[in-house]
Amino acid sequence: MGSPVKEMLYESGGFFKKQHRIVLRNAGKIDPNRIQDYIAMGGYTALVKCLSSMTPPGIITEILSSGLRGRGGAGFPTGQKWRLVAQANNSPKYIVANLDEGDPGVYANRSIAEADPHAIIEGMLIAAYATGAEKGYIYIRKEYPLAIQTLQKAIDQAKAMSLLGDNILETPLKFDLTLRFGAGAFVAGEETAILASVEGRRAMPRPRPPYPANSGLWQKPTLIQNIETLTNIPLIIQNSAAWFSKTGTPKCTGTKCFSLTGKVKNPGLIEVPMGITLREVVFDIGGGIPDGKKFKAALIGGPSGGCLPEHLLEVPIDYDSLTKVGAIMGSGGIVVLDQDSCMVDTARYFTEFCVDESCGRCTPCRAGLPRMLEIFQKITHGQGEFSDLAVLEKSCHFIREASLCGLGQTAPNPVLTTLRYFKSEYLHHIENKECEAGVCFKTRDEDEPK
Amino acid sequence: MNQHTMKLKIDGIEVECVEGSTILTAAKAIGINIPTLCYLDGLTPYGGCRLCLVEVSGTSKLFPACATPVASGMEVTTQSPKLYEYRKMVLQTLLAERTHICAVCIANDHCELQAIANQHGVDHVFYERNWSSNKIDSTHNFLVIDPNRCILCTRCVRVCDELEGVHTLDLKFRGKNTDVIMDQDEPWVKACSCTSCRKCAKVCPVGAIYIEGENIEYTKDPDVAAFIVERRKRLK
Q: Which residue out of A204, A366, A404 would a mutagenesis test of the B interface target, given it has the greatest number of B Cβ atoms within 10 Å?
């Protein structure tokens, strides 16, 4: 018999103390396969409130004043997006819920779908009522079998209770919801690529404008929202915008879910108020670095995020502060690295990831990223030259500014931030042909996949 | 039809154009030439090659002129040191991506990539070049595709789909492994949807698709797309 992990206990442990569970309100408390459980926790009351006492413009105003920003990474104000779709004069309108969580080591959206599927459906229904959309799709990765099963069950139960379909709750509201499955491309999570994929075409982003709010699925107005954003909606309606904006910072209200992984004592899914510092996340919630090792960097924002060094641990986690230091909020992944990680190798790894996941449409991302990877191969195999760093940096700026979609525009972030905060490691690799962490300079056969 | 017109400024010159037209066509109307590769008049804009990137005042983002609709009061800059630098880098990454050796290319002197590279003074490539050696498909009676010269502009894919209407050509894989394929990735001769219309060879900006034994000067006819679209309009 094992004994409980003290740090993880709800009451005594630091893991939960600094968290603020709004989105994950029901996670672990209800049976996700029973709609009754969700209703018992106050589920679908927000929808009833909307249908009985709120007008669509009133809902949009409420969402706007809550200050909720899209949790997919870019942080676009949700209310503004809804208003654009509501104002578009074309029909039918669509809603796409983005559950294509492709970042390595990120599982926040999956956990929401597996633990509280009805919150997503309720959020979509409120969005449908506010924007006038009639048809919704949840785009989910095929790699998430349990989430697919849970969501499908939830949709069936909601249909049986007349919460989906025609005449929802005996009102004229009409909304139909279907699951669509991803075929394994990371780029399919991009706003315009997801539309192509839902339509059944190759998941390739297209230039914007036209924006999906005007011309999305089949050239019709389409609202694309992240799962986490949608899960926030019922709460804002239930508890008012003022309640919601009390949490977080004035410019970034609410909370954010993070998948805390890497070299921390307590890795796991966490939900923290916006504006919390990185130090609190890594040391208070994460419990610090195991085995008495030294903290080196935190990679925040997934494969296209930034590597932040120790002196930036006091940075508050919100969209604008993170952008300032070269990282992004992204889909909410924090990977903690200790002294055993080589920053050059980390940058190489994430460049390789983006090379593999580039869709092939635009030149900078398709043809530029592999050239950067080649330079990394040179440096990590002892053939680097000082001039390589200049080429690397020049390529980063080119790819960031000239690429078509978010993948290319953010792919150089790990390289730029490591060049900025850990340049000495690059220089050490080139000058002394030495890797302090002992990761690089293996023979070529060793790192070839077996 | 009563179409709205709107005013914008391109490189300081005021232009009036109809709603829905792109920055590229508006610029062309006043004689400003923006380099393009994937764009072809008559086909849906692709926005892939990133040569036609322009600056728009009020945002730090760069926009592809071929795919960005004009907006009233827009101020566009088509020439700047940064844009020139990025265009050069687009050309260099394209040249480094696959096997581009002008001297032994069928399209030498009739190649849009070569011409634009010359215009931009690209006399060397600062990346290590990646000499690809993909298989050439010459199984078709007279059409040949050499993926090593392909720049993935997808003009052939779009002309096949949008004008010929058969969609024989499409892309497979992604990223640097992307390639043009016929039907379900079959040898061209087995691609039964192909009508052998030659439009893909006519619009290819480089020497990737060509007609065996035919002078490339005679094959190349990128204006065919606009010509067909114009003719079809008259039929209506």
A: A366
